[in-house]
Structure formats: C-alpha cells, structure tokens
Amino acid sequence: MERRGFIKHFAAIGAALMVLPKAVLGAVWDKPAFVKTRLDETYSALGIVNPAKTDSIQIEAPDRAENGAIVQVAVKSELADTESIILLVEKNPTPLIAIYKISPTMVGSFTTRIKMADTSDVIAVVKAGENYYQQRKNVVVLENGCGE
C-alpha cells in the first residue's frame, strides 16, 4: 500500500472510532463511585448494602508489601451466578480500584497489580444474583505507593 492510501485508511478508521458510542469502545465506567474518598460513600454509590462475609471468595495478596506502588492481588469467587467482582482498598485516597463484569461463561477469577497508599484491608465484593458478598485481607505496606 502506498503512503497516501495508508494515510487515507488510517484517517477513515480514526473517524469511525470517534463516532462509535462509548459502550462499544468499553469506556463505560462508574465515575461517581471511582471519585469517592470514603469506603461507605463508595459502597453507597455502587448500591452495595450490608455485604455478607463469605469464605467462597479468596483473596491472595502478600501479608507485607515492600512497595505500595505495586502490590499483586488475585481474587477468586466460587459463588454461583457471580456477576461482578469489585476490588477496593479501604485506606486509599479513592478506595475503588476496579469493577470486573463476569459473564456466565467466565470463571470469576483475576490477578492484577494495584497501588496502596498505606497499610489497609484489600476488599473483594462479589455480586451474585441479587446479593453482595465480601472478603477482606489486610496488607501491611512498608513503603507508600500513592505519592503521599
């Protein structure tokens, strides 16, 4: 393909992407919940009321994180009908870390790396059916990871 043809194709693709709805591009996110600074406000913004504690959710994270800027966390839900997994860090400046939507054909499990401002509980909240369930794991942070 010659240079001008490439540029025309690239411009056409760029223009098409700009007119696609945000949902198609995966840019839909719950901004009000992500900007809350307190855990109770975040729960309220997400519609979470009194999540039940359960051992059907496992959180794998280090007991002590050398550097809060990069803490590996794995979450697995063994609850039937898991629809979403919400990851939070209680003492972060904004507690909500991620919301993972789980389709019926997916396994409710993921591994990610997060930032932690201070020693805190890492919280996994799972929506299964109409109910919310949670599990917590305390992680001691030896070096601050959120630039404070």
Overview of the structural elements:
The protein has 4 helices and 9 strands, in the order ααααβββββββββ. It is α+β, with helices and mostly antiparallel strands. The protein has a single domain, classed as Sandwich (Immunoglobulin-like), CATH 2.60.40.2470. The model has no long low-confidence stretch (mean pLDDT 86). The strands form 2 sheets. Strands 1, 3, 5, 6, 8 and 9 form a 6-stranded mixed beta sheet that branches. Helices cover 22% and strands 37% of the residues.
Summarize, please.
The chain has helices at residues 3-19, 22-25, 31-34, 39-46; strands spanning 52-53, 57-60, 64-65, 71-77, 82-89, 96-101, 109-114, 120-128, 131-141.
Name the descriptors.
Immunoglobulin-like, 4 helices, 37% strand, alpha+beta, 148 residues, six-stranded mixed beta sheet
